Amino acid sequence: MAKDHLSVGLWSSGALQDQPTYRLAMRASISALSERTRDVLSVVIIACALLLPVWGLLHYQGPPMEEGFMLAFPEQILQGRFPHRDFLHLYGPGSLWLLAGIYKIFGTTITVERSVGLLQHAGVTFGMFALLKPFGRRIATAAALVSLVILIGPLGLSAMAWNGALACAVCALAVGAAACRPNIKHANSLAVLSGVLAGAALLFRPDLVIAVGIGSVAMMFRLGKPQRIRLILGGVATLALYIPHILISGVGAAFEGMFLDPVFKLRAGRSLPVPPSWNQVDGFLQRAGALRLSGWPLPMPALSHQIFLWFFLVPASILLVLFGAWRLRKRELSSQRTTALWPAALFCAALITQAVQRPDTAHLSWVTGISFALCIPAVAVLIQQARPTWEVGRSAWLATLPIALILLAVIPFYPLRTYADLVGQTFGRNQFGYEISRNGRVFYFGSAEGAEDAQAVTDSLSERSKPGESLIVGPTDLSRANYSDAFFYYLFPELPPGTRYIEMDPGLADAQDSGLAAELLRNDWLILSDAWSGWTEPNQSAGSGSPAPNQVVKDHYCMVTEANMFSLYQRCR
Questions:
Q1: pLDDT (average), residues 295-318
Q2: What is the pairing mode between strands 471-475 and 525-529?
Q3: Which of 542, 453, 58, 12 is nearest to 272 (CA)?
Q4: Where are the alpha helices (DSSP H) in 52-109?
Q5: 528: which strand partners?
Q6: Nearest to 300 by CA among 466, 413, 134, 462
Q7: Residue 306 — left, alpha, or beta (φ > 0 → left; ψ -120 to 50 → alpha)?
Q8: CA angle 11, 12, 15 (to 5 degrees)
């Protein structure tokens, strides 16, 4: 209490103009707070950073295909159609079955879906804070904020499988580290929960098996034998949920959908140059996103230069995290800090495959949202070992500074500028998202003209269609199936998709043996979009696939409504 009175007196007397005295007074005030109060303050800071862009994100354009199929796929399950067997799905069942259950309870709306996406971001952010708490609140808070700023930009609040997997994996590491603490209550239950969360991460994204596996194994070595067994049992029991999924979808269809299609068939049409090009932005969606400028006030490199530099920062940050964790492990083999950082460093290292397979801003964000955050404790460890007499607070600030400079000066356009833009939209500045609606269902499009065209087609189809008739949505040129405005399936839940290609990808939907032409012959309604006609990337998506679907449209469909960007057709012969 005396320290609080001292701080007030200094302020009222003007002595706080003496900066050293001011800092001492502030430290005295903060140190007077209880441990619980300081924890609450850190959580409040993180929560505010998480919530500030939420209102803007709730009315922001989502990715038309990715968010569209995260709205449509779970509803297909509720209607008795299943992934891999009835519609193409490239990941595990976790996100779809979770959303299906939530939609069953709360209804299928974009607000519900984005609320799940918000919880996934919260899982990563607060999981990172809890994991790194042994390094001190400053480091844990800074790392959580860095992770949030990087990860929330690429796909907003869309409840994508990757964000769900990261949330489960980071929380699995945090809970496992808690179970390793001496004299911790409920260590057995925490170990089981850690295993369940690790298994859940693989239900969302089975391609994370190496990252989750190596992180979990490293964590197991920190646990006692009883907890180790419980962690394994929790993981195995959760992964057993793959069994009903595979039985429902079919062994062959599930194997093809989760392994053959994404690993062997998709890569040629989705990969990008490694390293990224210096003088041009390779990814089509990144070029489109660069058209939206929001007045970043500081000088910055060209966008292609930022992506190029960002790519090389991925392995550099991972190596730095591994080196810092290794040095810590040598000095403090059994400490809580080692228990937190060493498994996380190994998990982080295995994420590099995401950056290499397609080095666009989304995939780079998905990796550096973890690696940049972990750089802060890693650098703090190296500073503390080099300067053991320095106070912990100084090490924390110096460890945060390099990441802050990278986000401000090297790659500001995508993570930090996007976050600032989203916060601005929450407060009505430079809003981006135009409503398309039908029967209480809403989707947000990125241009007023495009939203108006989509609304015209939506209204026309709503007037003419009958429940039970089928609908296919695709690009104007179906021989180049690079993208799809899958949100139309969500707007018309009573019209079953006439194709398994709700998600359209090059090398799959436009392949000679895709079956799309035969599906069109049985289909009733067709919406074609000209929004993606200019899709060009340095991969096989630039070419054309089977011409058969286009011929079927020409021979068997009649145009009903033409609205510039979108056109509605009906099978008429």
A1: 93
A2: parallel
A3: 542
A4: 54-58, 66-78, 94-106
A5: 474, 567
A6: 413
A7: alpha
A8: 55
3-state percent breakdown (helix, strand, coil) of the chain, nearest 5: 65, 5, 30
The type of residue at 115 is: S
Are 98 and 517 within 8 A, CB to CB? no
Q: What is the pLDDT of residues 222-245, one digit of tens each?
A: 999 999 999 999 999 999 999 999
Instruction: Give 9's contacts (C-beta < 8 A, 6+ positions apart).
Output: none
- Mean per-residue pLDDT, 98-115: 98
Angle at the Cα of 299 (from 151 to 366), degrees rounded to 5?
Answer: 15
- The two tokens of residue 192 are 């089981």
Contact 318, 291 (CB under 8 A): no
- Cα angle for residues 484, 275, 269 (degrees, 5° grid): 30
Cα 200 from Cα 93, distance rounded (Å): 10
The first and second tokens of residue 360, run together, are: 């666009």
d(CA 358, CA 66): 16
Q: How many residues does the chain have?
A: 573
**Residue closest to 192 by CA, chosen among 232, 153, 162, 152:** 232
User: pTM for this one?
Assistant: 0.92
* 573, 556 Cβ separation under 8 angstroms: yes
Phi/psi at 83 (5° precision)? -60, 150
- Listed by start position, the domains of the chain span 2-31, 434-571
User: What sign for the dihedral angle of Cα 154, 157, 162, 163?
Assistant: positive
What are phi and psi for residue 505, nearest 5 degrees? -135, 145
pLDDT given for residue 11 in this prediction: 36
**Percent with pLDDT over 90 in the chain:** 83
Helix (H) or strand (E) holding 237: helix 225-239
In the chain, the amino acid numbered 87 is F
Q: How far apart are CA 286 and CA 494, in angstroms?
A: 34
Task: Determine the 3-state secondary structure of 55 from DSSP.
Answer: helix
Neighbour tally for 20: CB within 10 Å: 7
